Amino acid sequence: MVKGTRHEMSLLDAGRQIEADLIAFRRDLHRNPELSFQESETAAKVADSLKALGLSFRTGVGGYGIIADVYGGNPGRIIALRADMDALPIQEDTGLEYASSRPGVMHACGHDAHTAILIGAARLLAGRKFVGTVRLLFQSAEEINAGAKAMIEEGALDGVDEIYGLHNLPTLAAGEAATGSSAQMGSVDRLEITLEGKGGHGAIPDQSIDPIVCASAIIMSLQTAVSREISPFNPVVITIGSIHAGEANNVIPHSVELTGTVRTFNPDVQRSIPDMILRLVERTAEAYRCKALVQYIPQVPVLVNDKRCVQHVEAVIDRMIGRPRRITANPTLAGEDFSLYLEKVPGCFFWLGSGPNTNAQLAYGLHHPKFNLNEDCIPLGASILAGIALERLHG
Predict the structure, then answer these.
(1) Would the N or C end of the chain have less CB density within 10 A of its end CB?
(2) What is the 3-state secondary structure (H, E, C) of 271-327?
């Protein structure tokens, strides 16, 4: 039996009452997805909803981001809640009646639901009396790890005491949640390598310098580095995700371009990897008579939850949905630029179940063309976020 406080039970009931509105809002966003730093229509719809609530807000923050403050009527602390708004360059294959109307663009990560959830939290908080302020951050460009940095630079965290956010998880049933302390999501860095050889005829390789063979050796060297230069107790992933070279089957190209991603849970390892990669790439390229240009682009740090903030979130979740519905989250090397907020202020990022009620572990995952979301999670997410904010301000 769930035993929440009276105001938490009131939030759950109020969330259910606005469920239809929030789902309709989410479906409209899903039908009209926008890529990172292109979320103009999405931001306009968010602004209209905030305006209808009589909230003060600022638009155009860090791209198309929006900052809105919900004042409780009395001065006090500021608790921030964040949602991301951008979609992915993926062709949707769900067959839903509200599927994306834009070819090659899809809300395959559920940011449409996150936006609807934060709008719901705004509706649940507006007009309530409490001590302090709840700051709502509607963020652009999470998918390219650029939006949080841009919003921070434009004052999103000014005066903020704590910050909280969530991400839907389709392999966890709707009505459940997952939390974890310390490092929960990996750092994210981008790797760009250009190899220059000497083009020529594919039948006369001795008169050329083949950058494709060089690229193959470098890719294998990077994997060996992970297994032989880094402790197995420090998980690291180096993935080369794209290779571009040549246009004809019988021509050795002049150059090769590779891009990749680097992930780890250890900040010290994250700092040491660039030099290791530079050494391996340059020396391997030299052995194959190629020239190498390496660009290592740091993006976001390890996402580390504050222990006390996690405890606050867990207490609210346990009271609102019951302890048996909260599980311990498994850390993942997937990245999240929410980690940049957590570098500045304490907070907690947690998972909200968005999968089917049975066999959720078999659901299509995030970033899949068939990704679908159990919309039961939307009013619940709104209620939980509002409950966390009020608990922290009352606390």
Answers:
(1) N
(2) HHHHHHHHHHHHHHHHHCCCEEEEEEEEEECCEEECHHHHHHHHHHHHHHHCHHHEE
Please say whether the beta carbons of 302 and 268 come within 8 A: no
**Model confidence pTM above 0.90:** yes
**How far, in Å, CA of 269 to CA of 183, rounded?**
14
If DSSP codes are grouped into helix, strand and coil, which group holds residue 354? strand
Give SS3 for 149.
Answer: helix
Closest Cα to residue 295, out of 192, 145, 188? Answer: 192
CB atoms within 10 A of CB 75: 10
- Which SS3 state, helix, strand or coil, does residue 5 take? coil
Q: How far, in Å, CA of 170 to CA of 173, rounded?
A: 7
- Could you tell me where the DSSP H helices lie in 53-183? 111-125, 147-153
Sign of the torsion angle spanned by Cα atoms 267, 271, 272, 276: positive
Residue carrying structure tokens 């519905």: 325
Q: Which residue has the tokens 């078999």?
A: 362
The torsion region of residue 322 among left (phi > 0), alpha (psi -120 to 50) and beta comes to left
Q: What are the residues facing 123 on neighbouring strands?
A: none
Cα of 189 vs its chain's centroid, Å = 14
DSSP H or E segment with residue 219: helix 211-228
For residue 291, give both structure tokens.
Answer: 């020239």
Strand partners, 168: 352
Q: Which two tokens stand for residue 346?
A: 């304490």
Cα separation, 91 vs 96, in Å, equals 13
Contact criterion met (CB below 8 Å) for 139 and 300: no
Query: If you average pLDDT over residues 110-130, what whole number do you get?
Result: 96
**CB–CB of 240/195 below 8 Å?**
no
Residue 357 and residue 94 in contact, taking contact as beta carbons nearer than 8 Å: no
178-214 pLDDT, tens digit per residue, is 999 989 999 999 999 999 999 999 999 999 999 999 9
What are the structure tokens assigned to 300, written together? 């976001």
pLDDT in tens, 130-153: 999 999 999 999 999 999 999 999
Which segments of the chain are extended strands (E)? 56-61, 65-71, 73-84, 130-139, 162-173, 177-179, 182-185, 188-196, 200-201, 236-244, 251-252, 255-264, 291-300, 303-305, 326-328, 347-355
